[in-house]
Design brief:
Rossmann fold, alpha/beta, 11 strands
Amino acid sequence: MSHQISRRTLVTGAGAGLALTATALATGPAVFAETTGTTGSAKPTIVLVHGGYADSSCWNATIQQLQGKGYSTVCAANPLRGIPTDAPYVASLLDSISGPVVLVAHSMGGTVITNAAAGKSNVKALVYIAAFVPEVGETQGELITKFPGSEVAPVSVGVPYTKADGTTGIDLYLGKDGQAAFAADISTSAFRTLQATQRPFDADSFIFPTTATAWKTIPTWALVAGQDKAIPPATQRWMYSRANARKVVEVPNSSHVVMLSNPRVVAELITDAARAVC
């Protein structure tokens, strides 16, 4: 029997794929499954948004904790191009989810969810993990310098890239010497993996002003990384206080990547928020 795939098979398969795509478009966006608690009420879907120098895998250990508690989890692949791109992208993901959502963000992801969740009735709680919590008109560039202590700029490496319109942008990568500033409390081997698999962010992300503040209408929980040298702890505390966070947990010895070094604490805070609102 020949192991070659015939042209007819390929065409038939392609036709089936197009038909499936057409059906999906006609019936609306995909809906992530809800889970149900012991009382029969729907548990919220936990949506997690990563920040710069990272990808969705940074949430893996936290996801394991949450799924073990019976929560459906979805990671948003944050484009890291700045508010005008990132916020609508995450907002469209939120629109695809049936039922209540607890929206979680780390670092620059905090700016994204602050904008993306505005006006989303299915988002019942916001959880900021060592994250930016901007006000309308503020930029990340202003917030990261509000209090002293951020050390990531000197260990960031700028790489030019060509944008779709032909202009040149600058992507920022975390350099190989960035562990002390970004992830001091994980192993060297774990940092090397993080550094090798990171997603860069457009340097212009620091200059786009926030246009909406979801935390003014959605209950907020937050975590301070006590030894954070990316977003200084003083800045985190100030932003969380301004946002009237219902609960603030501080991990005294944690670096910026608290979800890697202390995933259980992060998952417990997310669970607290989920139980409080659903």
